[in-house]
Every structure is written in C-alpha cells, then in structure tokens.
Write a structure and sequence with these properties.
93 residues; 2 domains; 63% helix; elongated
C-alpha cells in the first residue's frame, strides 16, 4: 500500500509512524495502533450482525473468547436499542 524510496513495501511500524499516527492526530482521533484497526473491524462486523464464529475466523483468532472479550465492542446505538427494549419490557402495560 505504501512504497518506500526503493519501491518496496515499507515496514509496518514505519507506515504507522509516518502516515497513520499523523493522520489520526490531524483528525483529532487520538492514539491509534494496528490493534485499533482490528478492534474497529471486529466491532463493525458485530454491528453488521456477523456471526461471532465468522468474526473469529476473519480475525484469525484460535479462540472465540479472544474475539468477543478483547476485540469486539458494542456501539452506542446498539447499547441504547438494547436498553430501550429492556425498559419497554419492564414498563409495558
């Protein structure tokens, strides 16, 4: 994706330091690293309704607990929707 001066692929840490971290700083995203992208990917897969076993395989994890416990996060909209369902169930007529 990013060729160095020799035309060969750059080292992944150089890509992170030279391109991705400065772009994140300009966008005021905050600190980013390679796991930021993996966590984002996993969370997006989850929000699109992808089965956990498929998420695990796409992320190449040996154990599904790694995928679900460390990488996948619920997004705010999903949290609000889930909370609203519980509230409606509790206060339904």
């Amino acid at each position: 994706m990013f060729a160095g001066d020799t035309g060969k692929p750059r080292w992944k840490d150089a890509i992170l330091a030279d391109y991705l971290k400065p772009a994140a700083a300009r966008a005021k995203i905050g600190k980013v690293g390679w796991h930021t992208f993996r966590r984002t990917y996993s969370t997006l897969l989850h929000s699109f309704g992808t089965a956990p076993v498929v998420q695990k395989e796409l992320l190449r994890h040996a154990d599904i607990r790694t995928t679900l416990d460390l990488y996948t996060r619920a997004v705010s909209e999903e949290k609000r929707a889930a909370s609203s369902k519980v509230a409606r169930a509790l206060w339904a007529d």
